[in-house]
Structure formats: structure tokens, C-alpha cells
Queue: 3 jobs
Job 1
Amino acid sequence: MGAYTDLDALIALQFKAQGFTLKHNQPVHSLLFGRRASHVRGRGLDFEELRGYVSGDDVRRIDWRVTARMQKPYVRVYSEERDRPTMLVVDQRINMFFGSRRSMKSVVAAEVAALAAWRVVQQGDRVGAMVFNDSSTEEVRMRRSRATVLRILDRICNQNRLLRGDSPAQPRPERLDEVLKSVGRVCRHDALIVIASDFDGAGPGTRDLLLHLSRSNDVICCLTYDPLAVRLPPAEQLVVSNGELQVELRLGDATVRKSILDASDQRMRGILSWQHELGIPVLPLSTADDVASQVRHLLGQFAHLGQHV
């Protein structure tokens, strides 16, 4: 199981950062479809489509080669190319150091952040990050360069390597809201904010902060979770530990089993409900599966073809 990530692994993800886009003009079936188009300063024009000429169209946009071939006028339609900076918010708190299958939640957060960083730079936009744990936050300013991506990945790896089962770090669920407040001070408008976290500590205050951020930015929540959150093992007993104390859970007891699942289900449903209540996409990413494949499945460009990538 992948307890940790490393810089080489995150760099290699640049070759998997394809088959999806983080731009607002998503395919119909994408989770981001219908999000508002950010009103940001354009750098130029992107060719979008050819269509038949209608009265009032700019004659300078007529594609004469296609017009001659089709024997009727066609115009080239362009959409504004938008400079949208992206801020990655990467959770590396001690609560993220858990996983029962392929990798830890902390590794999933690191991988989705790396995929997003590479994709943003490939699309020609600026990218920055706030990588945080229970005691500190490291900020990388938003710039449009490969060096910036490498700096972000290095900060993620540094914090990821600090995680361990016997860590003296005390869990601080309030850190999530503290970091979101910092993000709001940096991303005032027209940014894309990608949050990779299990959202431990999320409450009404978190909801309010996300709503505030989404009013002038685009926000994507990448919810990292472990399969144990939705399905308990068939074992009669399970021992869990926070590095200091151990608790034996009697999973054979139907009441105990139900209470654990109910609590987990309520928490997951609360976070997933942000998508409908706040209009913020929430992407559930499991520790049991390949992260790049999950991202492509959720944000894939091939969704409009009815394919499940």
C-alpha cells in the first residue's frame, strides 16, 4: 500500500494529466457543466466551431476555403481565451494519514493536486498552492511555469513525509477553515480553487466559507475517502489507533456496526450535498483506485460521446 508519495512519482503524473480539463466550458455530462463562465481578462481568442453565416455576422470571420467547398458562406466562431489562475489547496493533516487499500488519503490528495497542476500549466494558466498540515501552511504563489509546479510538488512531498502513525501532531480540525480564510484573501475573484481534502472538521463555517469563495471564483472540492467509510469489513472485531490510543470495535455487534456506518454516511452525505446546495462540484476520490483514472472518469472530455473513461 502507498503510505507515502515522492517527487518522482508526482512528476511522472504529468503524462497522465490528459483526458480532462478544468476549464469552465465542460462537456454536457461533466460535473462542471453549467458552472458560470468567469469574467476574466482575455489573452486572445480560441477557435470554437464553424457554422453557417447569418445576417449580422462579421464578414471578416468568413472562412473562404470552407465557403468555396460547401458553396455557401461559413464563419469561424471564436471564444475568448481566458487567463484563469488556479489555487490548489492540499490537505496533509494527520487525519489524512489513513488508508485500507491502495494508498493513504494524503497520497490521493497529493496525486490529484499534481494532476491538476500539470493540467493547468499545459493549458497555459497560472498555478499556485497552499499545502497545509495541523501546524503550518506553505504557500506557493501563482505563476505560469514548470518550475512553479515542481515547487508545489516539493512542498507537498515535504509535508507528506512528516506524516506517521506515532506523530506527535495533535489533530486540529479547525485548520481547514483557517486555510480557506487565507485562500479567500489571496483569491479575490476569477480564480479556480481546487481543494483536495477529506474535509475533516467541516461544519457550517466551512459551508459559509465555500459559498463566499464560489461567489467570485470557481471551486472544486476533491473529497478523498477510504472504502471503510462506506463499507465495513466482515471481521468480528477491528482495532483502530491514532498512534497513542487503541480502540477495539465490535463489528459483529449490529448496533455498533450501524452506528459507525450511520455516522460516516451522514458526514459523506453532508459534504456531497454541497454540489446541489452551493453549486460546487464535489469529486469523491477513493483510496482504493487509481487517481488519474477517477479524475478522467469524473471530468473526462469523452463524456459527451457517452463513453466511461
Note: The CA atoms of residues 99 and 229 lie 10 Å apart.
Job 2
Amino acid sequence: MSQSHLSLCMIVRDEIDCLERCLDSVKEVADEIIIVDTGSTDGTFELAKRHASRVAQIPWRDDFSYARNIAVDMATGDWILSLDADHYLRRESCPDLLEALGAPDVLACRVMIRDHHDGGYCDTTPCTRLFRRLPGIRYRGRIHEQVTSALQEFVRGNPGWRSVTLENVIVEHDGYMQKRMKGESKGARNLRLLTMALEEDPSDIYRRYKLAQLLGVETDEGYRHLSFALAELLALSDREIQELAFAYELMGNGALRSAERNEPAKALRVCMIAESLFGKHPVLSYARALSYYSLRNSDVALISAEEALAMAPVADGFVFNPGWLRQEIYFLISRIRQERSEHVAAIEALKSAVEESPDSRQLVHSQMRTALAAGAPLVALEYGARSLRSNGVDAQCLLVCAEAAEMYGDFASADRWRSLAGGISHS
């Protein structure tokens, strides 16, 4: 069998700060480089001309698929590798990527996109970025464009092909970090394109979900779109759901936000379906814990919270911030323990929550009040003093300190704490 040739296809605009890094990372695997520029003004187009096999500059038409498909049409290789300028391929991934090109029955490959976030955490998601250059395999969607639907249609007409996940082929991505974000204009552009896409196809589950994320799934409007996308997803067959790369994440997010909004029946149903199709995940276990807590079943809530906590450090499957999740789990455990008058265990859980988020005043206040409920005013004062030193003056903290001082009979100190708190409140 003759060696397969690989075409790197990119669309770029004003990426002078990271384009060369991306191109350098693929020089061992790419036989040709195709770059379509959509209107750069910072020197990106000139840099592209120096490095690429073929370059085109086109006007931006509010359609990412249109631009990507121009790059695909310009390619001559047997395979297409589609990357963005803020991607870069790990060097150690090259041998596995090249080996995959020789599989005779593989139509497309999911590579592992490793997203870097501010705060030092990363998440890894499989994404179809490598596929054969064949008729009909083109990108679709104005924004958050994909080839997956085209690949599925191709396989239905040409049985025998398969897609695989290359777990050792890792593409780093730092585009979500603040230093690389383009600012307000990028968010406004995405909102406009997502709105246009949904006007064209209101049943588009994926873009409905992306719009919910852009608006914020914790907001009323974002949650409305999230619920719509979730309902449309659950109307599909199990097989259709499992074929959607974003389905597990959507279900996890839907279960969690439903539980937070005190819709336990909805959250528990989503948890059950998601776990039957994809397996357990700490976000699902935490959503179940919240749901049973709202249903006043503290025993099952505690079991589910402990299960979520045990899975959190090693979970995979979809994106989440593990530090945030552990904090929330510990906080829930502390509330359950306190309601069961297990004050020592409640304090220990709150200590762990504060360790995950030492700047959270809400957690410190809860920690202090739990100590008061346990009859330990000096412990509450210790927590309060530590917070005031670390986080600055806080009226609520001062008021709890006053309660603690009264509890052990130091009324003069209590008056002083309240006076300080009052001064802050009226300043």
C-alpha cells in the first residue's frame, strides 16, 4: 500500500501570536499545509504565505463551515487534519497519528483536544479532527461546525467504514485562556451566529446547547435553551444519543442545573438515562445527591455525595472543574451532617470545602455557624479571625464573631464586633 498523504487545513484571522507554534508542531506529519485567511490585518496572512503550500484570503461570510470547506477543497492529500491556530500537536503524538493513516477501513479519527483553562486545570475531549478526503465529507453549521453528520451519511451509503478514537494523539488548546480570548467582540459574534443558525434550524440540539453555554446555563435564558436541547436529545433513540459526542456533557449539565433549580424528578431521570448509556460520573452523582437532599432523603443524598467525592479526582467523560465540584460536594455534605446534628463531621466537611476555595466567604460563614451550632464559639472565632486576616473586613463575619463572643459571655467584645459591622454596612 502506498503511503497516505496528510493535508493540514486551517482557517485563520489575526493569529500572528500563535500560528507559527501550530505549524511547527505538525511539520513531522503534514505533507501539505492549506490556510484560508478570513481577513487578517496583523501580519497573519503574510506569515501564512511563507509557510503554507497554498493560501487563500476570502471575505468573512458569517459561516465557519464555508471557510473550512474552501480549505478542504484546496487540499490534495488522502487525509485532512483540521486544526485552529491556537492548537498545537504534542510531539509524542506524531507516530500514533501517522500509524492511523494506514488503517484501510478507518474513515475518521477522533483526537484528544486538551483544553487549558485559567486557574491551572485542563479537560480533554475527543473530537473528530482527522478524516479522509472523500466526496461529500464537508463541514456543516455556521458556527461550532462539524463533519460528523456528513461522516454518518457517508457510512450509511458506504458500509464497512469505521471511526476510531486516538487516545494517544493529543492536541493542546489554550484558546479558552483569558490571554488568548479576543474579548467582547468574539462573544457578540458567536451569539449572533448561533442565533442565525437556530433561526435556520430550531431543532439543532448541539447549537442550542452551545447557545445555552454562551448565555450561561445558570441564567434563566440559558437554562431555557439548555432544557430545550435536553428534551430534544432525550427524544432520540439510545443509539442516536450515544453517537453524539456532546450528549454525555449535555445530560450532565442538564441534570446538575435541574437539581440546582429544585427540579429533582427531572434531574434524577436524566441521571438514570445518562448512567445507563455512558456510565457513572461525579457530576451525575452530585446532581443525584442534590435531588435527594431536596426530597428530604438525607441517607441517599449522603451516599450519592460520598460517591461523587470518591470519583471526582479521576473522572473523565466530559468537562468540569474538579476543584469547584469538590467544594460543592463538601458543602452539601456539611449541610446534611449539620441537619442530622452531626456537628463535628459537618465542621470537617466545611474545612475541606474551604481548602478547595479559601477565598469563599460564604463557606467561612457556614463554617463559623456550624461551630456555633456545635457549641464551640472559640472555634468559630478562630475561623473568623483567620478569614478577616486573609480575606479582609467582612460585616457578616464580624456579626457571627459577635454571636460567638456572646455565647462565651464576652459581651463587651460582642458589642465591639457589632459596632464594626454596622460601620461597614453604612459606609
Note: The mean pLDDT is 89.
Job 3
Amino acid sequence: MQVKSGSRKVGIETTLEELLTAKADARGFSFLPRQPVASLLAGRHSSRLRGRGLAFEELRPYTQGDDIRTIDWKATARLRSPHVRVYNEERERPVYVIVDQRPSMFFGSRRAMKSVTAAEVAALAAWRALASGDRVGGVVFNNHELIELRPHRSQTRVLRLLHEIVRLNQELANSVSSLKETEPTVDLNQALEAASRRANHDHLVVLISDLDGANAETQRIATKIASHNDMLVIGVYDPLGAALRGQPGMIAHDRGQNFAVPADGRFPESFQNQFASLLVHWQTVFRSLRIPVIPVSTATLPVDQLRVFFGSQKTPGVGN
């Protein structure tokens, strides 16, 4: 299913060098508005992704050449001479990425594992944010470890974030391939809770996950985050996961347990219905909170998908 390059299996795990190359690709899209009219985000949610605003700097006398639309008429009447209000564009919005590297992400039928795709999306988000002059931080987690990095505007912080993503990504590949699965001590909700403590106001929080294990507590924490921040969910999925074809006698493995594929032939249908229901449910839940959900497939390069989703083209595949 995957090929080898040297001693590394391409698509099964990532490297720091590969995530560094994402810096050159992190252009042609923005996680913040303004979005083109046909964009997935344009007009869908009532200014939840607020973008950068304007901060008032000073009130000063009108001088020739000033835009008359900036005249403060109340101040002009009070001071008996034309005065204008001067604004500076707010140029910073800390970006906080939450990167899932749990065993459920170790699945991929084409091009790359979900875990690798999540790493690639996180790298694109980090480099894009840094190029925009924003601080970058995040949470990287697996079943047993959760790393928190405070947002900072520096390439050093991005490199530290990428290093931790690569480390957990490669640990995941090694542990799953050697069947060393143990009872989890960290889950999706703990990662979200850690983000909510750090992103207390006016951050952009980007969750990159397959949403495995999401529940009512997930909704509660996401609500808390979205009440004071912008939030975006990148739902990583694999095409085979959406259209699995099984045969009687096959064994399905999930969270350390084996399950026999039923001989009645209804396994593929029931699996697909469950997968579709899960996806639709969480798209509905997050969108009711005005949190956009962007499905990203493992089958094609994430940067191409992001440019489509955040651009003017319509995107085929899962989600609307």
C-alpha cells in the first residue's frame, strides 16, 4: 500500500524535512477572511471568523488629502474644527493548532496516513500564520502524551511545534506497527481543555483530528473555546474509511479488540452508515456553534484541498 524511500515508509510517517518544505506551499490561502464570495467560509457563519479588525489610534485635526469618510462629526462639532479618527489595522491573531496523533489516525489507503495528513495540515497552518505576522502555538497529543506550546511569533517556535509533531508521528508508526497498544491516558477532550486554558481570547484555534471519541463533553469545551475565539475544525478522513468493503471471515481491529466481520454481508453498509452519521452529526454540531468544518482527505495533497476550500472553487467530496 505504501512505498519505501531509504529506510522510511513514505506516507506512513513524516519527517521534519518534509514539514519544513510546507513553508513554500503555505500561500494562496488564508485561514481568516476576507474570503472570496464562493468560499466555504464566506457568508456561512455570522462573522465568527472575524479576521483582523481596526484599532483606534488617535483623533487629530483634518489635513488636506485625508479621506472625508474618516471625519468624526461629533468631535468636529465639539471642537469647532474638522477632526479625523485614525485607525491602525490589528495585525496579530495568535493561532493555536491542536494536532491529533492517536492510533485512530494511523490509517490510510492512498497517499498517506491520517496522522501524516494531520501533520501536513498543521505545518501549513503554522507557516501561514507566521508569514502573516501572527504568533503560533499549539497542542500535540497521542494516547499517552500531551505537549503544550505557548504561542510565540518566531520561526523557533514553529520548528519546536513541528519537531513535537514529527516525534509523536514517528512514535505512532512504531507503536502501532509493533502492536504495542496500551490503555489511553489522554483523549481528545483533554487536548481541547488544554487549548481552552491557553486560548483565552481572540485566538484562532484549529483542531486537526478525525474526531474519534468526540462526545457531549467535546461539544461543551468547543462551545467554551468558540465563545471568546475563532475556531476551525479540520476533519481528516480516508476515502476507504468512507467506503469500506469487507468480506466474511475478515477481522476488524479497533482499540485493542478484534471483531469478526459478519457473514451476512451487511458489514460494509452498516460501517458506512455509521461513518456517515458520525460525520454529519459533528458537522451539524460544530456548525450550530458557528464553527466551520473542513473535511480533508488523505488521498490528495492537503495544500491543494485548502486552496480550494478557502478559495473560489467548489470542492467535491465529503461535506458542503
Note: The first helix runs from residue 16 to 25.
